[in-house]
Amino acid sequence: MRIVVLTGAGISAESGVPTFRDADGLWEGHDVDDVATPEGFARDPDLVQRFYDARRRAVASVVPNAAHRALARLEGAFGEDLLVVTQNVDDLHERAGTSNLVHMHGELRRALCAGCGARPVWDADLEPRPPCPACGERMLRPDVVWFGEMPYELDRIEQALAACDVFASIGTSGAVYPAAGYAALAAAWGAWTVELNLEPSDALVPFDDARSGRAGELVPAWVEELLATRNEEESTGAPTERD
Ligand code: BV8
Q1: Who is most buried in 10, 175, 211, 226, counting CB within 10 A?
Q2: Is the distance from the beta carbon of residue 226 to the nearest atom of ligand 1 less than 6 Å?
């Protein structure tokens, strides 16, 4: 069984990381257009650097929750047959033990050099305009995909969606494309789709299984179901019908 899991801000909410939507699109009091677009960065680079410097510092002080840990357990059993695609820029999946992971909107803990394109791991503030470790230019920005910019690893994601048997959408409002179209794409390719979210998102195509609640409860329960099914298959040798 091949699985693709898409996660959004809701999976990190229980670690204390503010979501995009619950703040009504106002992050830490800033308008999204001012802090998550190239135009906003061009208008006031120091404001944007301070916004991401504050978020980078904040993420360093939180820890993964039961939902992140459950997905790491799932990777322990399914290995390469599980791909986690996250819209989140925090490193909580990695810290919980997930390694088969795509950060399609980039990462707070990386910088991107507008001069040479290097993407160094980065934990310090960027507002002081430090030199790029690769080229020495002082043109480092957060390695985060802003609105209007190309997300990372889209081909790899779309290939995984075409091949997966199960697609799970966890903690995302389905407000941002192309991620918001992935459930419909997976379904069109024949996958069984499930949503684990605080409230039903306004999905383009209904999920086969939509469960409402907190990720910290829903995700471990769902993972235990998958692991039980896999154990059953392994013990009897016959693939069980998907419920
Ligand atoms: C692109 C940056 C071309 C880093 C982010 C019209 C005009 C202009 C553009 C567009 C347009 N229509 C579509 C677009 C494209 C645009 C877009 O989608 N705009 C939207 C606003 C309409 N998309 C882009 O620009 C993308 N690039 O399209 O390039 C292209 C197109 C196709 C193919 C190739 C290229 C780039 C998008 C990336 C933007 N950058 N982040 C940063 O985070 O600072 S996206 C930003 O929004 C966040 O990363 C976050 O991930 C995302 C919001 O989504 P969610 O993660 O879902 O978070 P949200 O708060 O919305 O929802 C949380 C959910 O969790 C809720 O449902 C809530 O109920 C639930 N929840 C809360 N608590 C819990 C919980 N669930 C469970 N348990 C809990 N405890």
Answers
A1: 10
A2: no
